[in-house]
Amino acid sequence: MNPTPTDPDAEPVTPDPDPGFYSRALARLPRWIALVAAVALPLIWWHGGALYAASFLTGAIGGYWNYVAVRRLADRLALTVERTGKAPRNTMRLLLRLLFIGLAVFVIIRFTRINLVAAFMGLFVPVAAVVLEILYELVFSR
Question: Considering the entire predicted model, what is its pTM?
Answer without folding.
Answer: 0.74
